[in-house]
Amino acid sequence: MKKMRSLLLPIIAAGTLYSTASQAATVDYQLDAAHTSIVVSWDHFGFSHPTADIPGATGVIKFDPQHPATSSVQVSIPVSNIDTHVPALTKEFQGGDYFDTTKYSTATFTSTKVIPRGEHKYDVQGNLTLKGVTKPVTLHATLNKIGEHAMVKKQAVGFDASGTLQRSAFGIDKYVPAVSDAISLSISTEAYAK
């Protein structure tokens, strides 16, 4: 029995160390709003693809490069900050026919699953809540870099991501289909260890 115990102890200890190391590998990163860009674009009567920026996103990325499937994303998007660079259109987008930002100033994205696709690419499945409606959305993300940030001297991570949503699913359907129902999302972010 003594011999069995002496054989088992190193195995148990190794298992505990591995478990602790696995948990320690997941890092919480706070989005840097100053280096987070969210751009939406759409088809305008087939002639052009205008864009609008939504600055000021905040949130947390929990990321473990060794076990990416355990990672998660929680982001708050202040749609009241939307800027089309055309003042009249920005005002229209903030109104009731579009985002109704007086009532729904913020959208949120909460991941439900992270699927590694190889070569630092991931599909991030989650729920987007916009204008009081929650629908599933998938973002296609690429890890740009992970390591110490040269300026802030903190552990940092950077991602680019893209996705598409149907605006009518969120009750934003003015001018569909002449102005596209499909809205393209383009996201770039830096986040720092908390």
Automatic annotation (TrEMBL):
<keyword id="KW-0732">Signal</keyword>
<feature type="domain" description="Lipid/polyisoprenoid-binding YceI-like">
    <location>
        <begin position="28"/>
        <end position="192"/>
    </location>
</feature>
<dbReference type="InterPro" id="IPR036761">
    <property type="entry name" value="TTHA0802/YceI-like_sf"/>
</dbReference>
<dbReference type="InterPro" id="IPR007372">
    <property type="entry name" value="Lipid/polyisoprenoid-bd_YceI"/>
</dbReference>
<protein>
    <submittedName>
        <fullName>Polyisoprenoid-binding protein</fullName>
    </submittedName>
</protein>
<dbReference type="Pfam" id="PF04264">
    <property type="entry name" value="YceI"/>
</dbReference>
<feature type="signal peptide">
    <location>
        <begin position="1"/>
        <end position="24"/>
    </location>
</feature>
